[in-house]
Specification:
The chain is an alpha+beta fold and 885 residues long. It contains 25 helices and 47 strands.
Length: 885
């Protein structure tokens, strides 16, 4: 498999500083002289001359050391300032406060940074350590937490630690490394695994992986599903913890690059973006822009300290070696988002505050008081987000004036997070003392660097409005709620440094038809990626006609040999739990699942093999063990069972409603109405027509309308879907008898000639029994949803055999639902064959609901052109085969 090889920023700079890496050094003596046009740079000639490209920390450090060694050094920098990703912002804030929007910490292992600071007269002060934790809705004070008085709400964790909980599952591998420079073959093979695959292989539960994903996101942009397991193991000996000694440079981290630049006696030339590098055995010639002219310098020695993402766009003749070219071309970059908010008073220092630096599993990830060393009474509170959350924020566009809208997925008002027992947080009166009131700054510190000729982005000032107390403030009200905080942090101070990809998008807008499991999640993901989205459903989310409209659906990892489904379900487990925490509503119940059979067969064998491969807990049970554990069940005719304890039940109808509500809270538009194809322009659909006579235009359309897909596209979908009915029964339980209710009984599935499955009673709705095997086609619009007498008898006969205590209990609820089966039972995600901006999404095949959070992201990325799994395209393509007419 191919994995993105990622090194965190701190390690990269440390290694670069130690080795003063140059892309190449030409050693022949030659003079440094201008070419093409006379250069104003006064570069001395001689064999001990070096030209350095890039005035980031790596380039400045190289130039500084070379000058001390007696070399004449000239530095070319594309921007107007030194420091590269060291970026200290001062202008937006009052009272001389500042915030680090780029590289922030100098820890005890950064020996070169410490030495440079000492030599240049700069002071490194100790930063605030974590003093609190907020995860899964629970608050912990770090002091008592470290004394093992409290435990994280994650399965498999050890008390007293936040970071490094995954270490217990790496001990076996770490013990194999006697010499870090001579790794044994078993360790080297880890480069073929991702971190997630390794942790699963070593027996880590899903909660450990989820916690590692959150903690990793505070220190690195690498994502565990894409991160090399080899890198994780090699770096784990010096991994970050809540006790890591971190520091910042007093007065701002930009003091270091500025001091290094001053030490070079004016030999740093700004506004000189490099366009071409030509080299030969005698030296190198560098072509760069200066005042609108193309100039060049020739040098015997050249140090290239330009970010690889920028270097890819610079012409190099002749090319670097194949190994270097590959390294430059394939180095992966991640995403980081920082939000800085200046408050009129430092409420985090008040007695009821949770702390000054809080780790959280919400979208804010790390919330901390930045201005601890700066004068009050105002202060700056910052948050740090990386990975998928930061990437989603980076897709905000200028379209429709929405550049300032900030996404809220897994987000909190930091005051709700820091303060105990309060509502939206302390009052924030308008600031009378400074025009513009409290300042907010949102910075997209994307690790895709800008073009060489890109300048520092200007801050778009908000339009001033009168505050509630007569002063000029940013907010029209005196209370800042969760959504307002994010809008202030993004919209009111302007969105800075949007990536070229985002700003170049041609006003994207999407229409998603169908608010079920596939359509609702796709709309939510598109909205969270910054797209304006309209979600349309004929009857509303979770309606009784929808395939996703039932009370409950199962989530299981066992899928025989369909391991793609297993992998997606394992990811979906984490997504569902994260959304539960975000929305504050319970949607998942871990029930376990019994897969019952007369004898051990190939289906059970392949299912168990897949579960074992991905370290999903499972257990083979005999009839005697079934009787012991579940005496309320009669195991007659059952020869064996496979038990999957982490299987659960999802609240289906409620989940669809929750997704639609979250979508609307994040700015999505929802319409009730039947949508049909509207106008066309060549090979593109222009709009959809609604049943009320209106139409909605967009640039992309997703039809995720389940069993209605064949009605909207009768020609394209002819024979591609079959929609059978399924009768579902809920049996009452005897008064005071909770043996058949959650959590006292698991899900069950019996796939022999009987063909039944069901769930324990959830929320007192009744014991679910569902006979399978019905082949009657069903029309979701016109057929009545009345259970058949035949299926009632089948259900009663099965209950009398398998659960004798329920044989005389009434059916307290029943319903008729439908499935939409694809020909190969794989999902369908494909473009319309004649309309390039229309996507067809469906074929849930009875197991789609659980995959909603993962499939929704996959579809959204296909739509916006960010598909990261091209190998799945043929799996989900519309197949040539069809159901018989």
């Amino acid at each position: 498999m191919t994995l993105a090889r990622r090194m965190d920023r701190r390690t990269f700079l440390s290694e670069t500083g130690k080795t003063l890496v140059a892309s190449w050094t030409a050693v022949a003596a030659a003079s440094v002289e201008p070419s093409i046009a006379e250069s104003p740079a006064n570069v001395s000639s001689g064999s001990r001359q070096v030209l350095v490209l890039g005035a980031g920390l790596a380039g400045l450090a190289a130039a500084y050391e070379l000058k001390k060694a007696g070399y004449g050094v000239t530095v070319l920098e594309a921007r107007t300032r030194p420091g590269g990703r060291v970026l200290t912002y001062r202008d937006p804030f009052a009272d001389g406060l500042y915030a680090e929007m780029g590289a922030e910490y100098v820890d005890s292992t950064d020996e070169y940074d410490h030495r440079f600071c000492q030599e240049l007269g700069l002071k490194v002060m100790t930063a605030k350590l974590y003093d609190a934790i907020f995860v899964r809705g629970q608050r912990f004070k770090m002091a008592s937490f470290k004394q093992n008085k409290e435990k994280l709400p994650y399965a498999g964790t050890e008390g007293g630690r936040l970071f490094g909980q995954e270490a217990a599952y790496l001990r076996r591998l770490l013990a194999l490394i006697a010499d870090p420079e001579k790794l044994p073959p078993e360790i080297l093979k880890l480069d073929n695994l991702s971190v997630v695959e390794l942790l699963l292989q070593e027996g880590a539960p899903q909660d450990i992986i989820a916690l590692y994903t959150y903690t990793q996101a505070t220190e690195s942009t690498a994502r565990p599903p894409e991160m090399s397991a080899l890198h994780m193991v090699r770096s784990h000996r010096r991994s970050f913890s809540e006790d890591t000694d971190e520091g910042r440079i007093l007065g701002g981290n930009d003091q270091l690059p500025k001091a290094l630049a001053r030490s070079l006696s004016g030999q740093v030339l700004y506004n000189r973006p490099v366009r071409r590098i030509a080299h030969d055995p005698e030296g190198a010639e560098v072509f760069f822009e200066e005042g609108g002219l193309l100039r060049s310098l020739r040098t015997p020695r050249l140090v290239v300290a330009i970010p690889f993402k920028v270097l890819r766009d610079i012409e190099v003749a002749p090319s670097f070696s194949p190994a270097k070219t590959k390294c430059i071309a394939t180095l992966a970059y991640g995403h980081v988002m920082k939000i800085a908010m200046q408050y009129e008073r430092r409420f985090w220092d008040e007695p009821d505050s949770l702390g000054q630096r809080v780790f959280t599993d919400t979208m804010l990830r790390r919330v901390y008081h930045f201005s601890v060393d700066q004068p009050g009474p105002r202060g700056i509170l910052m948050s740090f987000t990386s990975g998928a959350d930061a990437e989603a924020l980076g897709w905000l566009t200028e379209a429709g004036g929405r550049r300032g809208q900030v996404l809220e997925r897994r987000s909190l008002d930091p005051r709700q997070l820091l303060l105990r027992g309060r509502g939206p947080g302390p009052r924030l009166p308008a600031d009378r003392r400074r025009p513009g009131g409290p300042r907010a700054l949102r910075r997209r510190a994307h690790l895709d660097p800008p073009r060489l000729d890109e300048r520092r982005p200007r801050i778009r000032r908000p339009r001033r409005r009168r505050g509630p107390e007569g002063g000029r403030g940013l907010m029209p009200a005196d209370r800042l709620d969760r959504r307002s905080f994010l809008k202030v942090a993004g919209a009111q101070a302007g969105v800075l440094a949007l990536s070229r990809r985002a700003s170049a998008q041609p006003s994207p807008e999407a229409v998603v038809v169908g608010a079920g499991a596939f359509g609702g999640w796709t709309a939510l993901w598109l909205r969270e990626m910054g797209w304006p989205v309209t979600l349309i459903d004929a009857y509303g989310p979770g309606n009784s006609r929808a395939s996703s409209g039932g009370e409950t659906r199962q989530i299981r990892a066992g899928y025989e040999d369909r391991q793609l489904n297993t992998r997606w379900v394992l990811e979906a487990f984490d997504r569902w739990k994260a959304r539960e925490a975000e929305w504050g509503r319970r949607l998942f119940h871990e029930t376990g699942r019994l897969l019952l059979a007369p004898e051990w067969n190939r289906s059970l064998e392949t299912t168990k093999a897949a579960l074992d491969k991905y370290r999903v807990p499972n257990e083979r049970l005999s009839p005697d063990e079934l009787r012991r554990r579940y005496p309320q069940m009669n195991p007659e005719g059952i020869g064996v069972a496979l038990f999957e304890p982490t299987t659960g039940v999802l609240k289906a109808r409620e989940g669809c409603i929750a997704v639609a509500e979250a979508f609307q809270k994040k700015g999505g538009r929802f319409r009730i109405g039947r949508a049909t194809l509207g106008r066309r322009s060549g090979s593109r659909l222009t709009d959809v027509a609604l049943s009320d006579g209106t139409s909605i235009a967009a640039s992309s359309f997703v039809f995720a309308c389940g069993p209605w897909l064949a009605k909207v596209f009768p020609d394209v979908m002819k024979g591609k879907l079959f929609t059978p009915r399924r009768d579902v029964f809920f049996f009452g339980t005897p008064p005071g008898d909770d043996r058949f209710s959650y959590p006292n009984f698991p899900n069950y599935s019996e796939d022999d000639s009987l063909g039944y499955y069901g769930f324990p009673s959830i929320d007192h709705r009744g014991f679910k029994v569902c006979p399978v095997g019905e082949k009657t086609a069903f029309d979701p619009d016109t057929d009545e949803r009345l259970v058949s007498p035949y299926q009632v008898k089948r259900a009663r006969d099965y209950v009398a055999l398998r659960f004798p205590a329920l044989k005389d209990q009434p059916v307290v609820e029943s319903r008729v639902c439908q499935l939409e089966m694809s020909v190969d039972e794989h999902f369908i995600v494909d473009r319309h064959p004649a309309l390039e901006n229309v996507w067809l999404v469906g074929g849930g095949s009875g197991h789609g609901y659980k995959h909603g959070p993962v499939l929704g992201e996959y579809v959204a990325r296909r739509v916006i052109g960010q598909d990261k799994n091209p190998e799945l395209e043929p799996v989900f393509r519309l197949k040539a085969q069809a159901f018989p007419a």
